[in-house]
């Protein structure tokens, strides 16, 4: 690393230095190397004006950076690197040419051929043609003397020798342990066997269930042109956050899915609902094991169109209602993480429409809390706080008018 630091400016060829010795460390035609934003830049030097200023051959294209560390690279050093790269490339190409020559000799040569190894030494051995020629006529010398050539048999081979042990069909079936299904015709009547395209294999009617050991795909018979498909898949993934199983739905080239993702141990980290678009974009909604939900590529939004609402009216006395509410943090008595926000019973006194009755919540000690209350925190807070701010703004305007009147002496 060279002494001092440098300043690089986007779009400028001038390089400034702090604590540098450009005049003694570098000359025109040399290079400076500096890393900016994690990207290394090798920059050729056009001229050196002083110990603290030099000019590049072309304007700097990276982001402006000051206080950057740098290294001087003499032109001769970079030339040596280039020469070494050329030599190594030539050596690699020479090896590829040897490779082609070697395979050409092995596949098309006769007798022995000589191949050149990567270290420059040679090896001599038989070509493919020589191997097949030497095997010709060897069949009669095997353990079964009835095999006189590789192209024919004169007697039946035993099962132990890879044959059937018989010269008749029935004898072969008996020796091979084949049952009577081997001679049955294909059909759907009693006494026949089913073929691979048997219509009975294309339905689940009459089946009692079982275990599928591979991913399964179901296509729609009602809309074949749309490419409708429903699939069920399980995955053996070693990646935290990887999908371990899902049900997918395809419509043309878009796909939607519902699946479970693994955690760092033997736990399920979250459930995911997603849409994979044909153009390569995707969106997901995650429902974590801790009870929270996340819209990864967007936000949870509510319909708020004036055309679908009636009896709209501003919140009255917002400042007084603000006093009736407190913001809390808490820990839960059920299997849920800590949280923060409003208490439903307090919010009901202020904005009853923001409180909803849900189902039953089971506490850690087994206690059942029926009709658990839930709140629209975002809607309530936004409406109440905004109206309170407007009320405060009105008070500020009144105070400004009184102050102006007081200052003018009227």
Automatic annotation (TrEMBL):
PROSITE patterns with a match to the protein in the record: ICA (PS51688)
Name by which UniProt lists this protein: Tail fiber domain-containing protein
Biological source species: Enterobacter asburiae
Database matches in Pfam families: Peptidase_S74
């Amino acid at each position: 690393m060279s002494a001092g630091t440098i300043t690089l400016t986007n779009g400028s060829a001038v390089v400034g230095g702090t604590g540098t010795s450009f005049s003694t460390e570098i000359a025109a035609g040399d290079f400076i190397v500096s890393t900016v934003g994690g990207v290394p830049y090798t920059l050729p030097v056009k001229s050196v004006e002083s110990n603290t200023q030099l000019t590049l051959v072309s304007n700097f294209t990276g982001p402006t950076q000051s206080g950057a560390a740098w290294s001087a690279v003499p032109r001769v050093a970079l030339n040596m690197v280039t020469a070494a790269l050329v030599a190594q490339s030539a050596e690699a190409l020479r090896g590829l040419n040897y490779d082609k020559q070697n395979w050409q000799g092995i596949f098309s040569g006769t007798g022995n051929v000589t191949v050149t190894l990567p270290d420059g030494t040679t090896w001599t051995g038989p070509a493919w043609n020589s191997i097949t020629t030497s095997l010709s006529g060897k069949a009669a010398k095997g353990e079964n003397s009835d095999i006189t050539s590789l192209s024919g048999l004169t007697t039946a081979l035993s099962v132990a020798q890879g044959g059937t042990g018989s010269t008749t069909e029935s004898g072969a079936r008996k020796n091979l342990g084949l049952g009577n299904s081997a001679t049955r015709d294909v059909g759907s009547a009693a006494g026949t066997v089913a073929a691979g395209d048997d219509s009975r294999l294309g339905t689940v009617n009459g089946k009692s269930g079982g275990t599928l050991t591979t991913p399964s795909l179901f296509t729609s018979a009602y809309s074949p042109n749309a490419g409708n498909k429903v699939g069920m898949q399980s995955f053996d993934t070693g990646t935290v956050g990887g999908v371990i199983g899902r049900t997918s739905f395809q419509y043309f080239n878009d796909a939607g899915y519902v699946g479970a993702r693994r955690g760092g141990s033997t736990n399920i980290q979250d459930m995911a609902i997603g849409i994979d678009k044909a153009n390569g974009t995707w969106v997901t909604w995650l429902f974590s094991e801790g009870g929270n939900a996340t819209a990864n590529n967007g936000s949870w939004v509510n319909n708020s169109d004036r055309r679908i609402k009636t009896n709209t009216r501003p919140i009255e006395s917002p400042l007084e209602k603000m006093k009736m509410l407190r913001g809390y943090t808490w820990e839960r008595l059920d299997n849920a993480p800590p949280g923060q926000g409003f208490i439903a019973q307090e919010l009901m006194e202020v904005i009853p429409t923001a409180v909803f009755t849900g189902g039953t919540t089971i506490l850690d000690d087994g206690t059942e809390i029926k009709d658990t209350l839930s709140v629209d925190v975002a809607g309530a807070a936004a409406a109440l706080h905004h109206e309170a701010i407007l009320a405060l703004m009105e008070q500020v305007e009144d105070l400004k008018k009184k102050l102006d009147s007081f200052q003018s002496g009227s």
